[in-house]
# Entry
Amino acid sequence: MKKGDHLFLVDGSGYIFRAYHALPPLTRKSDGLPVGAVSGFCNMLWKLLCSARNTSLGVMPTHFALVFDYSSNTFRKDLYPLYKANRSTPSADLLVQFGLIRQATHAFNLPYIEKEGFEADDIIASYTREVVQAGADVTIFSSDKDLMQLVDDHVSMYDSVKNLQINVPEVVEKWGVMPERMADLQAMTGDTTDNIPGIPGIGPKTAAALIEKFGCLDALLERVDEIPRKKWRENIISHAEQLKISRQLVRLYPYIPLDIHPDTLVLKPQDGTKLIGFLKAIELKNLIRRVAKGTDTNAAAVKTQHVNIHWGHSRSGEKEA
# Structure
């Protein structure tokens, strides 16, 4: 990749859970196969691709990829066994859809990336680092605050639900710190979603104020005696080691070896026949009509594609968000 190129990275796992929880249950009429998450995922992805191609997002991507969580066993679990221990295993009706969603991504003619032992956020961070170093720009499609660590002059985020572009000013307005200090703030406040411990009595506003005063978490710990409020000072001193672990848990790891080279992630046109064949297998009639129109394809002439169904099993270890 080079200067002038633009990579869209989609948090695919985030799309899955958003689709599953935002929509009522849906089953395939022919056999009762759960397809609600697949339907929501495909509709969101088609909408995003249409917006990308008509530049309504303000930029036309040259490269595009979806990123998924592969397994729940990561280096963070080794560091802190209780990491994400509060999350439940996805229900059977969602498990069966993980594999179908990977097949959907293939039907959309899009690459997807997942890597055993690493979370999607770390994969996104690694591709972002590589692409920016090559001189290109990145837009990350997610609302995950962890990914805000990556935002800078060449990296932005886009929250598709709120239709909100997230650049450096938006991060500062929301959290009170620059993106490069988000890990410090999150370590201090903790994260109940991921079961990451924080400092008692320290919320986002207090954490942001302390980071502004001391510059960073390391400086705060070195000058802990200067913390003005006694209770904050005592809690930070007594939880100092936990605080360091929490920062390792929330900090993204951007050095994963890239199995798929960024140059190969070129955005290709959607193949109407290929995509409609998959959508017919899932029985998504409304989306079939939109895809047929958008790709100038005669849907009636397209044969139904065979899909692989794995009831109650998935290669993915994704946990409920």
In short: Residues 36-53 form the longest helix (18 residues). Residues 313-317 have pLDDT under 50 and may be disordered.
